[in-house]
Design goal:
Helices cover 30% and strands 25% of the residues. The protein is an alpha/beta fold and 293 residues long. The protein is globular. Its main location: cytoplasm.
Amino acid sequence: MSTAQIRKALSGFYYVYDNDQLIACRGRGILRNRGESPLVGDFVDYTVEGNNNGTIDAIHPRKNSLVRPPIANIDQAILVFSIKEPDFNTILLDRFLVVLESFQIEPIICLTKSDLMDEQMEKTIAEYTKEYEQIGYTILMTYKDDPLFDEKIAPLLKGKVTVLAGQSGVGKSTLLNTILPSLDLKTGVISEALGRGKHTTRHVELIAVCDGLLADTPGFSSFEFELMEKEQLSSCFPEFVAIQDSCKYRGCMHVKEPKCAVKDAVESGDIKKYRYKHYIQFLDEIIDRKPRY
């Protein structure tokens, strides 16, 4: 029995990467009986049963997993947001950030279409960039045909399992297509990885790039708060976490409680009002959520 990572799932087979080769495996029946389903990114114990064939015997504990795309053990997500067309949107960005924080996935904010900025937008984006960096987030700005793109992105991908996320039309596929050629891949292979051309079967695959692994699926669509309890929400705002031990009441929700350090920080400007406003909006969504059965 050996231990390896699943790098691809397709047509009922799980392809584990071991000794520089992919081995097609099926899940053992006992996994199905337990209701366990392997995911791309899982570390598994498997048994070789033939030439490049095997059976998955056990799935190692995961640090996280997503439903869409179905992938496990993600280190970070590149959040792709355009500055224009569509316009930069802080509430949507914060929604993504909160969900990623809840899964313990580190976000990297990648701003695209900077070549479309006018002078006023440039000032606005510079201010937002400063504010999010002060919270602790990494921000990467790209523009069309950026000659230094590889130098900017490669260190961020090294040694990490990365997924791409962001709304439609912001340039996720373009970004993915820009990253993959650093592997000197042929155009046809890139098209297949992007699910285009003749190979239209959608599958999740981890591709080795820049000394890390990148999920080829340009989509992270589960950004609702369906799995989050209201008590968890404040822990997904790093600037709240940094000071909430100073609140008078343990378990403070930062809404109506007196002597709340978070509300005081909002009043003083140490926490931005739009971030707090989004927190309240997300909290209301969670409270108003219909119960799941």
